[in-house]
From TrEMBL:
Gene3D superfamilies: GntR ligand-binding domain-like, Winged helix-like DNA-binding domain superfamily/Winged helix DNA-binding domain. GO terms for molecular function: DNA binding; DNA-binding transcription factor activity. Pfam families: FCD (PF07729), GntR (PF00392). It comes from Agrobacterium vitis. It comes from the Bacteria. The keyword Membrane does not apply. This is GntR family transcriptional regulator. SUPFAM superfamilies: GntR ligand-binding domain-like, Winged helix' DNA-binding domain. Keywords: DNA-binding, Transcription, Transcription regulation.
Amino acid sequence: MKVVDGVTGQVKTRAKGAGSLVAQVSESLRKAILGGDYAPGDRLPSEMELTEAHGVSRTVIREAVTGLRYDGLVEVRQGAGIFVLNHHQSRVNPSKLDRARLSSDLEVLEIRTPLEIEAAGLAALRRSPAQEEAIFDCHAKLLACIEADRSIREADLALHMAIAAATNNPLFTQFLEMHGASAIPQSKVVAENRAAEQTAYRRLIHREHQAVIVAISDGDEKTARAAMQDHLRGSQLRYRDLLRDLRGIGSEA
């Protein structure tokens, strides 16, 4: 069976950092698929084989595959494996792919919302000084991404992970770890070519996060819950609006 790592099957030393590893693995698999090493209908190596071939964790492989799935390159069949789709056909109707991605983003947000509202309240009651410092550090890194005009997805996830850790209930952290990068919506609320609006949107997210972490720092359980609810339900509303736009359902004047 073929094992993909630049189509060589060799394990390479990779840079540290889950985000960069996911990008590297995803790009390697993407090149192999688009380059014809795997034809539509072919099954990719198993998760364990990909883990060994790329020298990364299963979480990294799962996140890389999630990205390929959202791009319409592969599908995961329960109990059967990962199969290559006809990527030429998948690009015929990009709006359909966008709707599928948006729907998936919304489904994850709906599951996250009640859990993370509870997590914010518990973090306000249980966080240690070190955990509080970790939350503020993640928040500062997210702001640095905004100011450098970089993607905030990794920093966003890290902040929510830090809040989950501050509950001192490992199940909250395990939930986010299980979803990995896909816990953070991949769809763009604002087009990348609208730089000013992108920055404004990212700053809105930053302010929503700030309300959550200030309440946690103050030990204000009620306000922490309310702020997290505003943030995640606000995200749901933004993505529902975008989904309606893609479906051609405008708001009534």
